[in-house]
Structure formats: C-alpha cells, structure tokens
Amino acid sequence: MDENLRGLDSITLTRYVLHGQRAHNHARGDLTILLTAVQLACKVTDVCVRRSGIAKLYGLAGIGNFQSDSEKDLKTLANDTFKTNIEACEKVSIMVSESEDMALVLDRNLNSAKYAIAFDPLDGSSNIDANISVGSIFAVYRLQDAGGIRTVEEATKAILQKGSEIAAAGYAMYGSSTSLVISTGDGVHAFTLDPSLGEFVLTQPSLRIKDRGNIYSVNEGNSDEWNESTRLYVNSIKFPTDETRKPYSLRYIGTMVADIHRTLFYGGVFMYPTDRLHRRGKLRLLYEAFPMAFLIENAGGKATTGWERILDIVPTTVHQRAPVYMGSKLDVEDLLGFFQQTGEQPPSIGDEDTLDEDDLSFEMKGI
C-alpha cells in the first residue's frame, strides 16, 4: 500500500482508487470509473441480499435464472444489477457473466472502452435460504483493440486471456458485515461497508496470507471421487506422521467467496479438485478461479490446478472449468509434492461423458 495513505482516517474505496489513478501519469480514469460502478453494484446487491427474506427473493425460486418481472430470483437481480451499472459506466466493451451463456458485446459504436469484465454476480446463491454468506466475484481485463470488436465471436476471442493479464480483481462478501476485497496488482486490500456512510472504508490494508496455515477447505463428501494426489495430501494433513505437526482442521462453507476470505485471513488451503462428475474441475476460470488466484498470489500465496499455475492458463471458452488449489504458499507446495509423487496426468477433454451438462450447452452455442 502507498505510504501516503497510511495513517489517514476514512480511506474509502473511491478515494483509494483515485489515489492509485494519480500514481499513473497517463491514466485517463477509466479503471477508476469502472471500479466505482462495480462497488455500486455490490452495494445494491447487498441491499437485495439483506432484504431477501422479507421480500421473498428466494435463491431457490423457480427453475432457471429468469421468472416474471414481478418476481425475479435473487441471482437474476444481482446479475441485472451488475450488467446495468457496468454498462452505464461506458468503460467496458465486453461482459462475461456466470448467468449468461455468451459474452455480451457493449460499446459497439463508441470504440473507446478498453476494458472487459467477467463476474459471478451471486456466488453461493444456493445457500441464500439458509442465511449463509454469499458474495460476488469479478475480474477486469485490458483489451488490446476494443475498437475492432463487433461480434460475440470477436468478444470471446478478446477476453480469453491468461489470468496474469488481469488489471483488477476482487470479491464482495455479504454477511454480518459486508466486505469488499480488491487488488489492482499492488497488494490486496479489504474494505468494509459502513452503513452510516454508505461507503466501503479501508479496514485491512496490504493483506498477507500466512506461509502455512492449519485449515483445509474442501467438500470432503466427494473424497471417494477425488484424484489420488488430493486423497494422499488430505490424508497427510489429517493424520500427520511428523510428531511436530498437528492435524489440520476442516472448514468448508460451500460459498467460494466465504471460503477464500477465511483462507486469506487465517491461512491454509482451499481445494476444488476434479472428481467423477467434474472431470475438468467445477470452478470457472474467467470469473472464479482467475480473480481468486490473482488475489491469493498478490497476498503472497500460491494457486495451482495441481499441474500448472492457474494464472498461466489461456482459456479456450468463456465458461471453461479447472481444478483449483490455492492458499498458503507452503501448504500448496506440499500438495504439489503429491502430484509429482503420483505422476498423475492432467484432465483432458475426451468423450462427451467427460463433459458437464453446462459445458455441453455452452459449446453447442459456439462459446
């Protein structure tokens, strides 16, 4: 974090982003405007989440993402909120949403918007009715030639970048308090929504994840379907043979935002491995794995598929999945040792029965 910001009271997210803009002489303020639009979308979504029980905006209502205009489910409201606010800022040419089959092309005529954004508007929406924390995830990508983008195919090609090319990434977590954790590549900073001000205020600057934790986070109900390397690693931290090491504790919420938030603050490792139903993993790269890996690495941790660094992957579809392991540096390195030991091969696309239904529907649409 910039030393000029230290010691100052009430550093809002807007103030922080503006300060970062001034550090770049040639900055036009486009990223500042875009991130301001994202934080407004998060504030509106937070209000919807808090009212969901009263207004009956059930996360499990209906089948699919859309109902009548008079009764939209909460995830649809969150998706519409993000789309509306991001489009209105006029700094984005391409949007990819977890709730949309295809990339959305904006700014067809202005030819000036040099950013693309991918987001999951409401991560963990199936937990809404149980009053469990949910969140939103986003990643901002720079475009080399926004003026040449006119079609969905061109938009898809333009946004399929390595995760290491991210310009900014973050997540909002809606719960007992509302947090927004963000990085523009200069560290990871956590902001908390002050209801009296209606502003996100800096509460944890320059977050650093522990080099080693004592918590593992994974859906252990799928353990019979895991790859061998994951089973061996989890067994080693549950039943350590080294008498100086204590067993790790399992903590799993089922909302990626909440599980990563805890991992950032307390250390340890978060895992979503391949299994029989998800041969290529379950989490999507552009708006789940990439932004979270970007945050973890900027906080001093590591993020891998077990075979390669997550941020080095070049996706081939906008909803491409990958296995995910991320967290404390030494914990992830221990995990990688088991992948090297077993010599397991990375997942590959084979027959149709190795593809998830969602993947098939996207591929049939040409994504």
Element order: H for helix, E for strand: HHHEEEEHEEEEEHEHEEHEEEHH
Strand order of the largest sheet: 2-1-3-4-5-6-7-8
The biggest sheet, with number of strands, parallel, antiparallel or mixed sense and barrel status, is: 8 strands, mixed
Structural class: alpha+beta
Number of helices: 9
Low-pLDDT residue spans: 61-71, 350-367
Considering DSSP H and I runs of 4 or more, what fraction of the residues is helical? 25-40%
For the residues shown, what is the average pLDDT? 86
Rg from C-alpha positions?
20 Å
**Beta-strand fraction estimate:** 15-25%
Q: Say how many strands there are.
A: 15
- How many angstroms separate the termini? 39 Å
Q: Give the overall silhouette.
A: globular
Pfam families: FBPase (PF00316), FBPase_C (PF18913)
Cofactor: Mg(2+)
Family: Belongs to the FBPase class 1 family.
Pathway: Carbohydrate biosynthesis
Can you describe what's shown?
The protein is of the alpha+beta class and 367 residues long. The protein contains nine helices and 15 strands. It has helices at 13-22, 30-55, 74-89, 152-159, 228-238, 256-266, 285-298, 329-342, 357-364, and strands at 92-97, 104-105, 115-123, 134-142, 166-174, 179-183, 189-194, 199-204, 215-217, 249-250, 269-272, 283-284, 302-304, 321-322, 324-327. The protein has an eight-stranded mixed β-sheet, sandwiched between helices. Strand 9 (215-217), helix 5 (228-238) and strand 10 (249-250) form a beta-alpha-beta unit. Helix 1 packs antiparallel against helix 2 (30-55), helix 2 packs antiparallel against helix 3 (74-89) and helix 5 packs across helix 8. The protein is globular. The two termini are 39 Å apart. Mean pLDDT is 86; it is low at 61-71 and 350-367. Its EC number is 3.1.3.11. Its cofactor is Mg(2+). Pathway: Carbohydrate biosynthesis. Residues 11-205 form the Fructose-1-6-bisphosphatase class I N-terminal domain. It is an enzyme of class 3 (hydrolase).
